[in-house]
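Annex B. Sample input.
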Amino acid sequence: MNDTGVSAHAKPIPPTPGTPDHLTSRPGIVFDMTLPDPESGPHLIAPRESARPDALVRTISESGGVAVKALVASELVSLGLSLRPFAPTAGNAFGRALMGALLIAVGSAADDANDNDVESVQLQFRGDGPLGSLTAIADSRARVRGTVQHPEIEKLHRDGSPNIAGAIGLGPLNVVRHRPRWRSPYTGTVPLVSGEVAGDLTLYLTESEQTPSAVGLGVAFGPQMIDVGACGFLVQALPGVTDEELAQIEDNISAMPGLATLLEGPIDAHAIIDRLLIGLGSRDRHTMNPVFDCPCSRDRALRTLGLLERKEFETMIREKQSQEIICEFCGRAYQIESSEMHSLLGH
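Annex B, continued. Sample output.
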């Protein structure tokens, strides 16, 4: 593993045969609702003005054999890190997870035209390392949010670089994909083979979704975790891809500088695609602006309290205890008075 965040697994793999919302009311109580709430509109958190604006660009090679997505998300990741106190290692893992979810969730041009069939993708890294659970949720409109169980965790290699694998540890990667028209969500699980995020997503896409893929993710920080840089890519083989095209893509990935190195200059998503598709050309490119989006609301906070045991809930009402519900994604706090809780019981 180098400092780019690109796993050793971030190479095209030859084809093989054949929505949560975390709200905390007080220490020890965490609620997890995995799928989006269609009744709750999002509030978008706007990034700062930037000379290198965030963008997600997707295209396919001229022959139609390879799909490529490239993402620059420096401001988005910087904003996400500002919502809670993060140590550099935890922040690096968090940024990679946000970008990985975006790259998987944003689909084809056909998806863009269908406002009633927005897909959501939830990634949950459940390793046994000190970082705890790492969750990112994105949708096909390039909206994303995420949370880390222990954002204060710092774990370094001997050279001082973030030890992401050591922080995440071993365990499962759970992926949930959902569209409104589906009867039930699609769920896939693979073991964490690298703990570096990129390699684990490569394994998931290749084995669970049977799509030969390569994922690269890079996050870089300046002093005091300011001047954040973040970018990534997803390359996938499509039906009809030739061995020559796969070999060219693999050569192009191998020849790329580390993503952290690219972030030192005025890189953009189009430039990443240009490097990945050397010798292959590209068709029309489609650009989206990724945003950090949290759909929490006061109504959702009230419904979250309703998940408590009835006896415990009635005790809080009797003792006139107000409750502060804190969204684990954006940090927004909701103060719920006992009179509001009383109404939930239909009294």
